[in-house]
């Protein structure tokens, strides 16, 4: 899942958890995954904390082996100052694949902390449902816009929401007058497509990368969990996380976070400006 970011892979070991972090070169996408010790068959650490960094491409090369043929993976750092990390794949057919990956000499380990409860808007969607919605757009699509409006119970107000559908997905950018690409708008009823939907107040929109979104959808689908998306408005980051359990991930042995930058310009603001009388 980290391969699409094509950057460094940061590991942080403590007695309580193992953290993976990565940040793309343009600093527009940040990903982290946390594992509790009981996620692993064996988890051993020397010292209070150990950190190292390797290239994502190097790790991805090792993990190209089909997961169905792997019995287990062993990752070992001989000592805190070691220059290489040993990776060993034990395959079901008895084959062993071993590789040593060189650690970065001066790792720039980043850590981003955002309070999920601090986002005013959020929704939960099942991965296969989101994939079905995204299938309505071109496969070459690079960015997508989500427009969220408040759900109303008044029939008169519902008419302004395209038949009560409070969420819109689109790939239309009104700032590009000569854009000849295929334009798609998809209006969604949250009650039909989402597990949960929370948005109160004026409409907001966020535009962000589709490639990163699809990668996280695939990750959640493989983990058999729903996706929780948190956002505020254009220009503010969107946070995605797997929805584990009934409340939060505190009872789970793993958690993940993907944070994406969004476009600064609001399409809603541009549309409203174009509709004003001259």
From TrEMBL:
Q: Which residues form the signal peptide?
A: 1-16
Q: Which keywords are on file for this protein? A: Signal
Q: Which GO terms describe its biological process?
A: cellular response to ionizing radiation; DNA repair; DNA replication checkpoint signaling; mitotic intra-S DNA damage checkpoint signaling
Q: Which InterPro entries match?
A: DNA_clamp_sf, Rad9/Ddc1
TM stretches of this protein = none
Q: What is this protein called?
A: Uncharacterized protein
Key word Signal present in the record? yes
Say if the entry is tagged with keyword Cell membrane: no
Task: Write down any Gene Ontology CC term.
Answer: checkpoint clamp complex
